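Researcher: Hi, I'm a grad student and pretty new to this. My advisor asked me to get structures for two proteins we've been looking at. I'm not sure of the right format, so I'll just paste the first sequence and hope you can take it from there.
Model: That works fine. Here's the first sequence with its structure tokens right after it:
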Amino acid sequence: MSAESSGPSRDFTYWRLRFRAWRGGRPFWAGLLTLVGGVPIAWLPYAEIKIGHLTMAMATTAGAGSLIIGVLLVTLGLTMWYHHIVRIFAGVASILLALVSIPVSNLGGFGVGFLLALIGGALSISWAPAEPDAPGEYAAMPGEAPPMGDEPVGGPQGTGGTDHMYATDTSVDANGGRNSAG
């Protein structure tokens, strides 16, 4: 392989910009916080913490419930990323699961998982997709005709076409007062 490549460059900047575009079209931080919040809720009831020669087990009677809540929070976090159309449902469900994790899972993963899942759910509910960019104003080049559709339906003003102009665009005023719904 030669030093001069004929293919497009896939350097760090390309992937960073591509990730930024992907991240901007979905509730990324909400999904990340919910996903990370599910980990301590699912892990802490099964963890064995070793301090020197002392082993402390956090086994609780609700270990299976903690695991289910943690796995559901991780799943909801991924859902917020990859199926962001259901972000409201995922946000409400993650808030409810975070609240349920307080009595079930060692105070919601000692408060860490609870707070992360709660904030992630709130971010998911409050996130809204960005408005699409409006097309820029058409700047006609010298000697170039303006694009089609810029003139009113009846032609340019003062050249015939319609015999009157309507005061508003509402369906009552337009088309002689007739409604176009039926």
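Researcher: Oh nice, that was easy. Here's the second one.
Model: And its structure:
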Amino acid sequence: MGIADIKSTAVGVVGLGLMGSSIVVSLLASGHRVVALAPIAGEKEKASRHIADLLRHANAAGMLAEGIAPCVNRLQLVEDYRLLAGCRLVMECVIEDKHVKETVYQRIADAVSAATIIASNTSAIPISELQVLVPHPERFLGVHWAEPAYITRFLEVTCGRDTNPAVGQFMLSLGEAWGKEPTLLLKDVRGFITNRLMYAVYREALTLVEQGHITLADADKAFRYDAGSWVTMMGIFERIAITGGADYIEALKRIIPRLSDRTDVPEIMQRMVDQGAKGIHNLTGLYPYTEASAKQWEAAFAQFNKDIYELAARYNAKILVEEKEINVSS
């Protein structure tokens, strides 16, 4: 099964919440026929409206080469698992509950062929634990997206203990065909790559705030204007390579022993959960919001995602290497 084969057939997406709907739009933008399945009663109508909004945003951002109409024509919104029968790849995007996922996998497996790849968008449950729930674990893996899926270059592919390595390589190639710069987690670990990196940052920053060393706002500024000034162009190891590694050795010796290794949930975050805080979505969170400011943040973030997508393409690592080789040879 090559890239051209799967792109000429349908891809299924089961679970049409915020992330699932965003993935649907990304797949449509890439030229797929998509069978989008709403597993929860009443979700189909809400998802239809949300996908329509996302398609309009994707089109305004220049992400739909053919415009909206061809994408709509390639989309099938359903509630019947049997309509996944023609899919060569099915993405699971339901809640992070193993029992719920097991039921969903059973219904997907009953509908599709043994050759179908089943992928989970989980960001919390190890793939090796999930793949035992399907009849063909060698064709099961993790494909973790970032929001909004259709305008970010992030895609994290994770093979479980029993995943056929060829399936992982195939998903990497497919991710590149989707315009992503996918990563492959070589060993399945809880949290995968990006969550383990970011939660280490969250733990340290929240600990510094709780201990009175810094405010939330200043922690955000430090991260935004230091790492934020270079991280779209290069990764952390590329940064070390460019700036020189000698100074990092002494810094690592001094700082690592003093970093937080706490295992509890920081009180600030627990308080947010207890309050049901969802930031701009319900005007309750780490910062105060009004309806007007929430809308401004949402609009600004949408525009920023478009800008960053284009900036990342402009400073793509492969392009920089090619330009460097051209400069050296000339």
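Researcher: Is there anything I should tell my advisor about the second?
Model: You could mention this: The beta strands are 10-14, 33-37, 75-78, 87-92, 117-120, 140-145, 155-159, 183-185.
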